[in-house]
Amino acid sequence: MVGDSLYEGQKERLREKKAARKEVEKEIKMGREQDVKRMGEAIQRNINYDIMKAKGIVRKRKKEDKNPRVKKRHQYDKLVKKHKTRVQEYADGKPQGVYTGEKSGLRAGVKKSTKLH
């Protein structure tokens, strides 16, 4: 039959066209791979410290927090200063001398007393 041969001819042309397209795609892919190999490491970009350490997004910390010993020392100094405002230091065994009053005068706003319940 004439219709079958026409149909088969059309089918054969489509197969050839598809095979030719696949060949072209294969050649293009091979060319890209060769380009990448030729470029080698030049295609790779340099990474920064954050990427290398894979830290992601990290908040900015104080320099003091990096060294725990220093942080504790500052913490202690801060507490000592706070303690000195609450408690008067006792000079052990040193002669007190005659009381001459407050050197800088009396401050009306300061109260250093403790309440007894």
Question: What gyration radius follows from the Cα positions, in whole Å?
Answer: 43 Å
- What shape does the CA trace take? rod-shaped
| Tally of DSSP helical segments | 3
What fraction strand?
Answer: under 5%
Q: What number of domains?
A: 1
Helical coverage, percent range: 40-55%
**How many strands appear in the DSSP assignment?**
0
Low-pLDDT residue spans: none
N/C terminus separation: 120 Å
Can you give the mean pLDDT?
85
Question: What does this 3D model show about the protein?
Answer:
This protein has 117 residues and is mainly alpha-helical. The chain has one domain. The protein is built from three helices and no strands. The N and C termini lie far apart (120 Å). The model has no long low-confidence stretch (mean pLDDT 85).
Task: Give a concise summary.
The chain has 117 residues and is mostly helical. It is 53% helix and 0% strand. The chain has three helices and no strands.
Write the layout of secondary structure elements.
Layout: H1 2-39, H2 49-53, H3 68-86
List keywords for this structure.
rod-shaped, mainly alpha
